[in-house]
Amino acid sequence: MSAQKTSASRTKPVSAVGAFIGFVGFSVLAGLLVTIGVTPAIAVAGVTTTSTIGVFESLPEYIEIGDLPQRNEVLAYQNGQPVHLATVYDQNRQELKFDQISDQLKNAAIDGEDKRFYDHGGVDITSLVRAGVGSLAGGLGESGGGSTLTMQLVRNIKMQQALELPTLEEQQKAYKDAVEQTIPRKLEEMKLAIGLAKKYTHKEILTGYLNIAYFGDQTYGVQAAAQHYFNKNATDLTPQEAASILAIVQSPNTRNLSDPKYYDANVARRDVILKSMYAQKHLTKEQFDAAIASKPADYVHLTAPTQGCKASAGFGSQFFCDYAVQVVKEMPQLGATAKERKAAWRNGGYTVQTTLDVGLNNQQKDLIDSYAPNTEARFKLGGTIDSVEVDTGRVLTMVQNKNYNQLSGCDVQGADPNACAPSTDSGINFNVDSKYGGGEGFQTGSTFKPFTLLNWIQNGHGLNEIVNGTPRTFTSFTQCGERMGVNYPVKNDAPGEGGNMTVENATYRSINNSYVQMAQKLDYCDIRKTAESLGVHLAAPRATSAEFADDMSQKTTTDIKTNASSVLGTNYIAPLTMAAAYAGIANNGTFCRPIVIDNVTNAEGKALGGQQKDCTQAIDPTVAKTAIYALKKVLTIGTAGGARTPDGYDEFGKTGTTDDADQIWLIGSSTKVATATWLGNIEGKTSLRKVAGPKGTYSLVRTALWRQAQSIVNAQNPGGQFEAPTASSIRGNSISVPDVAGKTTDEARAAISGAGFTYVDGGTQPGAGTAGTVLSTSPASGSALSKGSSVTVYTTDGSQSTVPEVAGKSVGDARSALNGAGFGNVSVSDQYQPGDGKNQCKVAAVDPGAGTAASKDTTINLTLFGNKDGKAPKDCK
Fold first, then answer.
1. Cα-flanking dihedrals φ and ψ of residue 461, to 5°?
2. What is the pTM of this model?
3. Residue 525: which H helix or E strand, with range?
């Protein structure tokens, strides 16, 4: 529903204002306004107004100008400099300060709408009386029913408030109430205008009016109107342009400048405003004559608003933009709750600096389009490229072969082909999880094998250990300490593969049976934990109680599945997730969660910061180095031989092909940037080994695709050499990490060194316990590692404590318990949960929740039980 201003009807003989004047009486109204402190232009003394004042005083008297919804700007980088990417808004508005608005606009508003604006206190008796006389005489003139700019601002504020209600039904009702011209509504408007005039200066009221007013064609405020209709700023308007804008406000749907058919109506009102400006000596004779003689066709330069990620300035960046916009709405800088964040983003005014490199992204977009054209008609082909900065998690590129179109339904199974967009488009971002507009993800094939390799090394095994790769049927596997029976025949990708081989050989040749045999000596739950420590999870939630649960109200999870085939990559995972996991391996085992927001600046220009860098030592550095040592050969003599970039930077990678060859992957990394490439079926099971694209058979082009995609990012992010593992790491051994939690650093150093590990000082982290003692180790105590592996030890700063359970306690008891746990900041919400009478005034909920580790200076918020309606009991303090 679009907002629009309404004016009093010019066809009815008596308006609502005329009826109002008749009801109250001219002299009574004047006396009333004198009594309540408004200085009218015409005053009538000695009038009895007692009954009317009673009606007037029963109405609300307080309203605020408040913050208005305005544009949010999304930025990217190009050559290291911020550049515009997209404008995203709920309402096309850009707020201006008083000094940023041209004098022509201010004069047009006052001269055309409210000549005595600076002389009255929100209500102008002269205009009201004239409106009443005019109405009773047969109609209203252009005075609009005697409404001052302040009264019009009140109406616009109430219209805006209506549009912010949660449901369409509530919006429509409140909007109708805001614009209806009835006696009670006019009285309320007058009283609120008086309140505004007492609270705000004339400058603030005029600025608020010019920023909030609706100017037709989904345009709000004078700045957006000037840009939309004249392609210039509101500081640079000519008299005729300023008058044309103000001519719209009384009838935005019939006087706006979006179509020449509205020009005559606009000019008729424009000229009235110009005459007023001239009469008030705000225009010279020459300016007035030139303005009157001008035609809208001479100065209207309609410029379509570039709204949303679809209008993104970066070629192929629309899917990234959409993802970034969804992520920023989750950031705590915008509010403590989802409701607050949604409202803050809707109000807008934010400038969001994303991590995207437009130049690199454009090149990769061209690349994916050349290898996986969206015009492929034989089957539904998808393709993506994602590049992630290794040591930060910053997402540098995100492209896919489909055109961004949120209205597309053609990529949904069973969609009506006559009712959806062409197959070149998609509304699904193949790169990301379903919660961010992605699908269910894709089976990863052998790109999942590095997680088994990592766990293999974690458990003390080495790269030189012999495994048998001959095809066989496996009858059991270990899952979470329990041996599970199974009948699982495993085949290798190519006929004739098998026999005894080293783990290193099995890795770069990607031998399925060798890897399942390796997994037989491990626990599948441990392999899953290794993958999850690097951020790996399902792209879409699944029900936990059954493989294909119909009741989606059941508990769901994005934890990857463990079954006999899971170690060969049968889970459905998003490409960005896999790119970030490989980046974690490249970063000496330190995983950094993907980041797409570098900084957010609010409407006042205050920098709020970006997504916090969230990195954890997921894998022991020695383990990561050893795995990389084996994975480097994939790109030289292995399944992706020839994929290493010609620039000479050190790189590793892993290929992945599903059983039906319907999904084809190659993921790899330098020391600086990890890149994941994927080609596959969006729907169906067409073998990519049987279909040739413009660059050759789809299954074979992944090597060249990844090499070129990585070369693009390497050009601006030069890598180095991966550190080689020690001979003992390659050989392997198995020792458990001792439990040193709570010990001093000297005690921990002695225990870890005595067990044959290398002690690494991980520094101090926020945590509980005595400051300076060991908080945790990475890997955790009990983990099996090869002799000589590093164990990173983190000490606690003592700044955190665990939130105690206080539900059901009184406020005093809860506060005592929390204070005793070290939390000095306790806040009680003024919102209540419905109670049953017995638990009234007792703690219903605590945030952060009980058992949560939090900084001792964290504010703990308590929510209490109220009465049965959830309202505050009278005796609850």
1. -80, 160
2. 0.65
3. helix 524-533
